Amino acid sequence: MSKLRYHRILLKFSGEVLAGNRDGGIDFPTLTAFSQQIAEVRALGVEIGLVIGGGNILRGGPGSRNGLDRVSADYMGMLGTVINALAFQNALEQIDVDTRVLTAIKMEQLAEPYIKRRAMRHLEKGRVVIFAGGTGNPYFTTDTAAALRAIEIGADVVIKGTKVDGVYDGDPVTNPDAKKYDHLQYIDVINQGLGVMDATAISLCMENKLPIVVFNLIDGNGNNLNRVVQGEEVGTIVS
After folding, report:
1. Contact call for residues 109 and 31 (beta carbons, < 8 A)
2. Higher model confidence: residue 49 or residue 175?
């Protein structure tokens, strides 16, 4: 077995990455490619928790700015994360990866309710555990849910898969001179408003000394996640 730097991880995807090159919804070839990456890492013996945003379906904040009540919009966003979680579960199980979806809001016909002990037991049995429904509370993002669940399950790291290869001091798409950071301190992320994760999530990680790795999930021949868990310098680390 390869030498691992991280043995238990919390993997965070934004919902937007599931849309691929589409404006929204789920791009199923993209979903399949991500599932293959997860399967390869699980085969190394890594225990994997997964949190997926719902931005490819609906984001609470923008929804409220377009006339929806903020609380209603946030709950709709939570339901979007459940849709994404069920899609991921199906894709993973099609390639023989045993998976469980645990939701912060009870919907027992679809998934198990989130109970920490149950989640830990699934992880110990080698199952990929997908945490859906955010924290179950409005006004909290899935970034915060990812940090919270990572702390609860004793993860070694939060790994955030994005469409860019790390954290920059500007938008690398519109600013070719934007500088990429290899390493950042938590407080720098907050003070500079770098948008790695929201301030609540960063503060939770800082208080619990939980490192964050931000990397490009799409490039790297589908091998970047594998490289991260084995300790290669990929993306940006916040610690």
Report:
1. no
2. 49
Beta bridge partners of 167: 181
Q: Global pTM?
A: 0.93
Neighbour-count burial for 63-85, b at 16+ CB within 10 Å, e otherwise: bbeeeeeeeebbbbbbbbbbbbb
User: Can you read off the two tokens belonging to residue 7?
Assistant: 């043995």
Q: Which two tokens stand for residue 161?
A: 């898969």
pLDDT tens track for 112-140: 999 999 999 999 999 999 999 999 999 99
- The pLDDT of residue 172 is 78
pLDDT in tens, 3-33: 899 999 999 998 888 888 888 899 999 999 9
Query: What are the DSSP calls for 169-211, one per residue?
Result: SS-TTT-TTPPEESEE-HHHHHHHT--SS-HHHHHHHHHTT--
Q: What number of CA atoms fall less than 13 Å from residue 196's CA on the CB side?
A: 38
Q: Which domains does the chain have, with CATH numbers?
A: 8-238 (3.40.1160.10)
